Amino acid sequence: MSTAMDTESTYSGYSHYSGHSKKAHRQGRDRHKSPRSKDGSRSEKSVTIQTPPAEPLLGNDASRAEEAQDDNWGETTTAITGTSEHSISQEDIARISKDLEDSVGLDCKRYLGLTVAAVLGLLVFLTPIAFILLPQILWRDDLEPCGTVCEGLFISVAFKLLILLIGTWALFFRQPKADLPRVFVFRALLLVLIFLFVFSYWLFYGVRILDSKDTNYQGIVQYAVSLVDALLFIHYLAIVLLELRQLQPMFTVKVVRSTDGESRYYSLGHLSIQRAALVVLENYYRDFTVYNPALLTASKSRAAKHMAGLKVYNVDGNNASGQSRAMIAAAARRRDSSHNELYYEEADHERRVRKRRARLVVAVEEAFTHIKRLQAEEQQKAPGEMMDPREAAQAIFPSMARALQKYLRTTRQQQYHSMESILQHLSFCITNNMTPKAFLERYLNPGPTLQYDRDRWFSKQWTLVSEEAVTSGLQDGIVFVLKCLDFSLVVNVKKIPFIKLSEEFIDPKSHKFVLRLQSETSV
């Protein structure tokens, strides 16, 4: 089956040969041979993941073959139809199915917690109302008349419950930002405290008021008012524990990305490890540049080449230690000259980037100048012939497409920018009357992860790895790791040192000076 596919693809490449040169044909033939060689060394139980055409994978020779690729935008995307570098075994499939089951369990746990919190909150708000209405329903004829003070307490209970409802909505009813592996300890303690508190009030109400059928209705209403006051104090305690306690910075964390070593520093307060990891991830998507694995392929191939250059042979089992030392020394001298290769590679890459950047800037500026001239001409025509921003973007995009395509290839950013996203950004810039420099800012400087579509993120699901319990608080020297599929974030926690600040007073009258005149001075 694989041979048939290779034969068919080779035939299609041969039929396409009539419009191309022999060099392009040789490159196409080598490109069709490479998957066949990989397929021979693959295990029979492996499963190949086919890369979608919108996200082409970059090989080690992407920078060398970019000059020979076609310049048309629609034909530049490469779809790998043979085998891919990304494969998973049967054990990986079993682990993925287990992760899916765990995710279902996490969803059930989250909805269960929300259900318990909603039921408890409904019980809290209905309890004071029930305390006031039950005597009116059960023994209304035996109750003492409610005077002016009692009726004023009704207004007090109504407004306090309204304030409590608004505060509870603002503090607790928020859209969750993440699914944490463990429960939030302080929130669980508050729920337990509220349950015990309401249960104690109901127990006292049932024993002292319902059983004895107390006729002092004003005292019953005051009892309900005391419950609402206590609930307001618990709400204040929740604000202190959940919001105010973590505001004061106590720790400094250093976040390092494992692949390229990019790092950032953040200040955190009293947080648990899992909540600190959540804060780190929120800042990561905003502050770190997007992860680009294509930038690491050149260094990996260069390192593999130099490691493969060191080979020592022992013929017929003889002890040729002198010859081995000579070969090791020769290989070491050959490796010592590798810094020259790195220097010239980086210099050549920077030269090509600067050249294509200049071409891109000129092309975009000319395109924007053209669309401004079109707008001035279209204002004199009929309204039906005027262009909207989308049509204007489609009109000027072909003039800059080739320069933008070559620049994105050189900087290895083409997997993050599709033609549709570029057109949307171009129409957005035209709509808001933005300059060419503002349009190019997204492509000249790699932005944070949030700038790109979610489909092009390499980090969506994270795993927290820590030697300490994730519900424990941050401490000096703690290290935890946030892992995703392609890389990890290593977080090192350091406590902010205690600062002793002293004061020194300077008398303003002590600022007196004397002018010393000498014969050499010009004064």
UniProtKB/TrEMBL annotation:
Cell compartments where the protein resides: Cell membrane
Protein's UniProt name: VANG1 protein
TM spans (from-to): 111-133, 153-172, 184-204, 224-244
Keyword Membrane: yes
Topological relation to the membrane, as annotated: Multi-pass membrane protein
Gene assigned in the entry: Vangl1
Organism: Scytalopus superciliaris
Compositionally biased residues, Polar residues: 1-10, 74-86
Record family assignment: Belongs to the Vang family.
